[in-house]
Design a protein that fits this description.
single chain
Length: 71
Amino acid sequence: MGKKNIQVNKPQNMGGGPFLCMACGHDRFNIHEGKLDSKWGFTALKQDLIVCSNCSFVHTFFRGRTLWDFD
């Protein structure tokens, strides 16, 4: 289960301040961890899914690549 209805801040190297939804400008999000598998399942991409609590637009952020990740 992810975190619900929280504010997210941009990193300082991006100017800091609140992260806003790219679709509606809302500043509250639900955060989930995700994994995107390759076609054959040999590699996987870990990702953070930041979902706007207003319009449900999903912002996807890459967290790294993993090899043979079967969890």
